[in-house]
Protein 1
Amino acid sequence: MTDEVVFYHNPRSRAQMVHWMLEECGAPYRIVPIDFTRGEHKTPEFLALNPMGKLPVIAHRGVIVTETAAIIAYLADQFPDAGLAPAAQDPSRGVYYRWLFFAAACFEPALFDRLMKRPDPESKSSSGYGSYEDVLAALKSALASGPYILGETFSATDVYVGAELNWAMMFGAPGVKGDVVFEDYVARVTARRAYLRVAAET
Ligand SMILES: N[C@@H](CCC(=O)N[C@@H](CS)C(=O)NCC(=O)O)C(=O)O
């Protein structure tokens, strides 16, 4: 069975984060462009891959994976030579998972609610992310000692957290843009060759 990753892609989407990860881990991949304007993500064929009708999607060794953070974690495990995930038994795997899941489950929804000017959650204790401010403070604590989330070691979690923060900065998210910890971190991770290769293509 081929090791090639089939990557359903549109550069104007979260699939850019997966593209960065594919370059980081040195995976052999083939891009299948998906044109949103032609509704190619809502065809029966595409919905059979992802019933959400959303990108990104990958197919690898007969398996379909969706959800940006899940794809990034999956690729780190499938292409271990790149050294982008701590071993399963390594305690730092806990730190790696912690901030990867935090970014997907707390930072992303908090960020979108804030950018869309949705009202803050009525109750911090029943809202999964508490408050936007609490999320940013927690994320900043993870980055404060740096240079990466695992300290000296760059990992797949930095791809996802870095891409989310970079995106937040582009959209002028309050508390992110202009903050020295976030700005320095994003500058550091987006200076990587893999990121720059992808950015040069778009
Ligand atoms: N939770 C998903 C979100 C995926 C998502 O919303 N993708 C957007 C592009 S960034 C999409 O495909 N939108 C097209 C649509 O819903 O019609 C992930 O993290 O991968």
Protein 2
Amino acid sequence: MDASMINKIQKASDYASQPERATFNNLTVEFHGANSNHVVCLDRDGWSCSCAGFRAYEICPHIMALEILFKPLLKRRPVPYAPGQNIVSDVEKANRYSQETDRIRINSFDCHFEGYNKNHQVTYNEGVWTSTASFFAQRGVCSHTMALEKILKGFVQPVRAQPVA
Ligand SMILES: [Zn+2]
């Protein structure tokens, strides 16, 4: 392996211990709930979920579980509890779901990444990664994608490095 790649791998490992450098602008998650599957989305207007709980209360255990799991990458206040919501039950479910991570699969995200030198945009869509880092343009992988791959391990498909030309 060449020195520049070793350097990026080292940097990715540093970045992975600082997940707060990354911020989700958009996120779409497939969530396998206890009874059925749901799609949870985050965008500039906030969270939404396809479940009945969200339709009734604009908050649900799926969103609450993602707030627990991805806290450093969100940089937003948790969705407030709603009148009539079964808070005890929903908190219990959210805590359980946040442990049962095989329920959760990220379909896509768009992420702002504060690098040591420059900020970058990293996107993920059904296993396809992009990054604005110049190293990524050459090699199909960079310290930012590798760091996010570590941070989001189990929720995303790994970045595939390009063979050295
Ligand atoms: Zn939901």
